[in-house]
Amino acid sequence: MADEEAEGAERMEVSSELPPAPQRQASWWDQQIDFYTAFLHHLAQLVPEIYFAEMDPDLEKQEESVQLSIFTPLEWYLFGEDPDISLEKLKQSGAFQLCGKVFKSGETTYSCRDCAIDPTCVLCMDCFQNSVHKNHRYKMHTSTGGGFCDCGDTEAWKTGPFCINHEPGRAGTTKENSHCPLNEEVIAQARKIFPSVIRYIVEMTIWEEEKQLPQELQIREKNERYYCVLFNDEHHSYDHVIYSLQRALDCELAEAQLHTTAIDKEGRRAVRAGTYAACQEAKEDIKSHSENVSQHPLHVEVLHSEVMAHQKFALRLGSWMNKIMSYSSDFRQIFCQACLEEEPGSENPCLISRLMLWDAKLYKGARKILHELIFSSFFMEMEYKKLFAMEFVKYYKQLQKEYISDDHDRSISITALSVQMFTVPTLARHLIEERNVISVITETLLEVLPEYLDRNNKFNFQGYSQDKLGRVYAVICDLKYILISKPTVWTERLRIQFLEGFRSFLKILTCMQGMEEIRRQVGQHIEVDPDWEAAIAIQMQLKNILLMFQEWCACEEELLLVAYKECHKAVMRCSTSFTTGSKTVVQLCGHTLETKSYRVSEDLVSIHLPLSRTLAGLHVRLSRLGAVSRLHEFVPFDLQVEVLVEYPLRCLVLVAQVVAEMWRRNGLSLISQVFYYQDVKCREEMYDKDIIMLQIGASLMDPNKFLLLILQRYELADAFTKTISTKDQDLIKQYNTLIEEMLQVLIYVVGERYVPGVGNVTKEEVTMREIIHLLCIEPMPHSAIAKNLPENENNETGLENVINKVATFKKPGVSGHGVYELKDESLKDFNMYFYHYSKTQHSKAEHMQKKRRKQENKDEALPPPPPPEFCPAFSKVVNLLSCDIMMYILRTIFERAVDTDSNLWTEGMLQMAFHILALGLLEEKQQLQKAPEEEVTFDFYHKASRLGSSAMNAQNIQMLLEKLKGIPQLEGQKDMITWILQMFDTVKRLREKSCLIVASTSGLDSIKNDEITHDKEKAERKRKAEAARLHRQKIMAQMSALQKNFIETHKLMYDTTSEMPGKEDSVMEEESAPAVSDYCKIALGPKRGPTLTEKEVLTCILCQEEQEVKIENNAMVLAACVQKSTALTQHRGKSVELSGETLDPLFMDPDLACGTYTGSCGHVMHAVCWQKYFEAVQLSSQQRVHVDLFDLESGEYLCPLCKSLCNTVIPIIPLQPQKINSENAEALAQLLTLARWIQTVLARIEGYNMKHTKGENPVIPMLFDQGMGDSTLEFHSILSFGVQSLTKYSNSIKEMVILFATTVYRIGLKVPPDEMDPRVPMMTWSTCAFTVQAIENLLGDEGKPLFGALQNRQHNGLKALMQFAVAQRVTCSQVLIQKHLVRLLSVVLPNLRSEDTPCLLSIDLFHVLVGAVLAFPSLYWDDTVDLQPSSISSAYNQLYLFHLITMAHILQILLTVDTGLPLCQGEGDSEEARCASSFFVEISQYISGCAGHSAPGWYLWAALKNGITPYLRCAALFFHYVLGVTPPEELFTSSAEGEYSALCSYLSLPTNLFLLFQEYWDTVRPLLQRWCTDPALPNCLKPQSAVVRYPRKRNSLIELPDDYSCLLNQASHFRCPRSADDERKHPVLCLFCGAILCSQNICCQEIVNGEEIGACIFHALHCGAGVCIFLKIRECKVVLVEGKARGCAYPAPYLDEYGETDPGLKRGNPLHLSRERYRKLHLVWQQHCIIEEIARSQETNQILFAFNWQLL
Ligand SMILES: [Zn+2]
Ligand SMILES: [Zn+2]
Ligand SMILES: [Zn+2]
Ligand SMILES: [Zn+2]
Ligand SMILES: [Zn+2]
Ligand SMILES: [Zn+2]
Ligand SMILES: [Zn+2]
């Protein structure tokens, strides 16, 4: 302690003697009177020096000197002590309340649907992960940049406004000390410094002089150095700029690229330095070159070097200010005050406003820093945020106008800050009250939109610029932000200002009311489709704003009434043309209507009526408040309902006429508009409101007059009054469509009451009804339902609150998505004429519901559900139903339907008429049930029962219905008619009930009668249903018979083997020798069971001809694909040789790092047919223009049947039957011991060696232990145990064998094809071994039994592959095979060693086994005769080879046993355990310190048994497919129980494996010794070496987190390893190894063989031998890639709670890992199906687009 103090004192002394530069500077400033002048003086001296080298700056040095000479002195001056110490202190005391992190483009943001005030309230990743919202219904989004984190803003969140890190009072910091950590002196200093700093920043940023600096900064002698500076714009593409620069500056491409990238990022860059004249010249050059390539010249300026330097430093100073302010709230406040201070006596706005106003003139880099400055100062302090907002609104109009004429993105405009202020509820209210912000925004709109006004002062967007109008939307958006939270408390001032804003808003609507009028085109088609998108887009933008205005108005009754008055006035002003002009009179049934003569089909009409619709909205809200009665106080004159109804009615008529094809000459634009008019995006403020307006009309007008008006406007009055006799079918069709449309609208007017205020319903009920009707069409996924529901201003549909009341969720399987199914009890609410159904939805729903009723054996009537009651203000609407004109219309329709001559009716029309009837009867029934009969004035029943006229044949509606029932063509309507007639009865009885008690008996009778007829009908229906069912059954039976036939023929073609493996043969055998079945099931040695062979007749998929597979026949082949694979690797990421030119593949590494897998789709062709097919493909592809799906050069093609990607064919060669005479075998067993067998083999090899060498170097280099040879054994003795002649294959088969073997060689080693290469047979064995291992591994992974569980294609492929491998030997030079064999045998034969025999631990022994077994017959080869071992010889050869190699493997396992693992106490002291111990004692003699030394015997035995099983399983598969011997039953079941002993029995092994060593002890001892004393062994066993242990670990795709946001979190921390910039990256996760890569970015591209490839493709080369699975993290998409140019997308294994994926995170719901789907992806990999998936997806998407996979 004391020492330290002394030391400190010493340092102090030194420093006081020689104060460092910063302090000196600080104290100098202290002495100056005017800090600003002194500060400028300092900068004037230093800045031009530091920022001198603009063209090629040394950034590190620059930064260092700025720190040292400017910032550190400033900080000293500010704190009066070492700034590091002060800042440290501040850091500890001052946790800030707000996070305020500014988002970069592409960053993930989170919002909470449960807690956020509105969807613009977002959290950054860190805050979110530490907040309560993590467990709420959050949404993920990708930021477009520019926003900031709202963590800590209590106004933004209903609950949980703080994350753990921003919680006030966290970690011992109390509120007090975090608020006042600064002492007075520092504050005083800050007040002195900050104003100067901000003033300098502002002055320099907005400095406009190109050639010189402000006076105060001109203290140096002026130099003659200028820069030519190029600015970013949005007109010119990257390539344009590069081109212009290259031309103008005469520079290299690389330099031009460098400039362009910098310009794009920063917004400006000096591209040339020099004298003024030189720069001016460069400027003109660039301008003219850029003008050549595009219309606009590039923006170039010439700036003096010192101006440039100061501007650059000003921004750097801004970042410094940011840093300082982050330490203290006081700093921020002082800074804000300085910014807001107005110069006394100056006209200039305050500093911050000057910056704001300059924003549009600034370049990107400068804007970014200035916005950040605002974020970190004003936006962190609520009080100052308010003041800033006030300034912002003050200049709002000007800022928006400048933004609109600017060409920069919105995200980097100052106007984008509006959302940060306007959505804060208190701020919004304040701005309305103090700055009248609503009016400011609407007036801004009124000022920017007039360029679109036509001479009637209506908008007309013909020929608009999309970009420019897009910028206007930003202003509309601001209106939405300001209205987003409805005030809870209304002050007088708020009311006044709001109403003023509303009035101003009505002015905009006035310009829209009736805009873009159209007239029906007759005769000629219009020439060009007019632009319609702009108007509709504005309508969409306005939808929620209109709704919000209505909601705000509805906050108070008075307010609403005033708003209503204003709106009504506005509508009237726009309707003047209606009240003038000529009139016409309509008459019907004694009712008369005089109205303006107007025809939609002839006069102008517009679809845009926002004023009328707003009025309708206000009216509904009045009704909801129950204030309609007070309307007359505010609208003193008559409401003039007819005028109000007129325009919406015209719009509906227009829709009807479009449907009737009357407007088809007006082109597509009208059709699109009509579509959007009714679409969910617009309908709430278009179509729905028009229907409401008609309902208002119907409630206030005389019903007959109302209907006359409708008839008149639909131009249908004539159609109902006169008999139209025309043969013009088109005209009739047109009339019928119009009538249908009109009836539909009438149904809606009377029946649609699901709007709060129109009917007595709640919002939830409305949403529920929408959902019910969607689900009546079909079960739907969540996203589809959401898409079909209107969103409110918070983008919510209210779906989740109600869906579970009406529907049940059905989970998805491993593919597809989850869907909601309607609950049965909700079906009763189905209304066939639901007004939001499109035509197709309507008919689909009708069809579905009828079908369902039929299935349930119910009648097919679909009457309307009883509607909810109208609100009082709308109660009169029902009178429409029972009025005279309605009766007339209905009766006319029924009469026409009954009349055989009339064609002015349709079944659809009839259905609608029934629906109206049903509505009327339901209404009356409901009223009668509620009130006594005499009070119910609604009298539908009597009106409908009355005769329409006094004519002789007059009939009432009931009679007409009875008649209709009898018409056979109307069979489909019968149930509905019956329903209506019963309803008539019901109502009649209700009417009579009260007064006619006496009639009860007759009433009962009629009920009974009813029931009887009803029962009868029911029985009849049942009979019909039964008949129909039988008919269906018959058809189904026929169908399935056909299908079965199909399957059977095709089974013969493709699946011959596996399902019925030689049925007859095996059955026969079992019958003849049931007792020896056990004996048969042994594959190796003298007791080997018989080969099961069956006659195989296969059908070629190309020519459909059958052929038996025989070795002498022409070859048949299997389509196959050979690929390299790392699926089994034990060392993921181990560098794979890209080319195998020098590779020796005879021995496989034990880590199986990279193998060659052969798979097949199982489809069979004639070799000849395949060759023809392949040639044809080659020919046709030469004419193809598209990117090829497959690489013909390397033999790729698609399987003609299943379109799998293939690159070769495997010949199908039948198994050669072999049978062993058991007596011979027994005899031989005595003679041929292992020792003897080894001697024979060695003698044979030695013999060859002598024969071939003849003085030269031996062909087979080998080392014999002398004295081993038995003199009785010589060269030929191997033949004496039995030989047979060589199998003769047809030439065609041999040819195919060579072809396939060459392909395996070529692909496995990545070398050019060469059928003579000595490595061809090695690769054959290698792919056999590896394919077997891969399949064994897969079976184990899936928990399937070893036999009987393979897919047919796997089974057939494996079988063909093994038989091919057996045959392959004969196509090669036998000397070559012998040479390979000797090298293989040298591993396991004592006394035989070649020079390169590898260490036992560095090879995979299963590969050795396969090679040795397949190569062994070559030892029987002789110059003169072609011989091969007889069955019995083979049996012994294979047995001994297997035993020797198995012993070697046992040693491998025991040497590498992992003793570090805790194993629970084993079975104690068993026989095996004792053997294990003693075996270990034995080998310990040879090798010291081997791992298992200390382990107990039982442990070793358990480890051995466990470790050897995969090898035994592989061997069993291998021998089975080579020999065709039936395996024991136990291997057909998936239980591990008994598997081990069954394997041992099948492979002729003792279950106690150590007995092998005991049996052959003398032979094996020297071998053991040799293996153990291998000099390479200790190296392999070193603890740090990654030795492979057994069983090998099974590979799986990496663990993924359950919650997707964790991955996003990881991605956000991802930094590109190659570049340090903060540009947006595309992190991609390798699912094999977990590496995160920087995808699709130049920084991480690699060059391989002269080609540029992306980071992912490069990674895949090593990680998956070219094949890989990646997850694009930001997009939540999986991609599969193969090679350099192929890939496809695959659904990601993440699902939201509704069982749907979300590619691109468009919906943003929380996502969780679906284990099943991830497992499926895992299997795609392990089954080696990635290539297949890619090929299939490319086949389907080939024309759409070609993604450049190479650069992934
Ligand atoms: Zn945050
Ligand atoms: Zn936070
Ligand atoms: Zn929440
Ligand atoms: Zn064929
Ligand atoms: Zn196929
Ligand atoms: Zn990887
Ligand atoms: Zn990168």
Can you walk me through this structure?
The strands form 12 sheets. Strands 22-21-25-26-27 form a 5-stranded antiparallel β-sheet. Strands 4-3-5 form a 3-stranded antiparallel β-sheet. Strands 13-12-16 form a 3-stranded antiparallel β-sheet. Helix 24 packs antiparallel against helix 26 (610-625), helix 30 (687-700) crosses helix 33 (729-751) and helix 55 runs antiparallel to helix 57 (1497-1523). It is globular. The protein has 1752 residues and is α+β, with helices and mostly antiparallel strands. It is built from 65 helices and 29 strands. Mean pLDDT is 84; it is low at 1-19, 171-179, 996-1008, 1042-1078, 1255-1259 and 1265-1270. The chain binds zinc ion (7 copies). Residues 1119, 1161, 1163, 1199, 1201-1202, 1204 line the site of one zinc ion. One zinc ion is lined by residues 112, 114-115, 132-133, 136, 160.
What coarse outline follows from CA principal-axis ratios? globular
Distance between the termini: 60 Å
**For the largest beta sheet, what order do the strands appear in spatially?**
22-21-25-26-27
Low-confidence sequence ranges: 1-19, 171-179, 996-1008, 1042-1078, 1255-1259, 1265-1270
List all distinct small molecules, including ions and cofactors, that are bound in this structure.
zinc ion
Approximate helicity band:
40-55%
Kindly report the oligomeric state of this protein.
single chain
E-strand count: 29
Question: How large is the share of residues in beta strands?
Answer: 5-15%
Mean pLDDT across the residues is 84
- Output the radius of gyration: 45 Å
- Total number of helical segments? 65
Class computed from helices, strands and strand pairing = alpha+beta
| Largest beta-sheet details | 5 strands, antiparallel
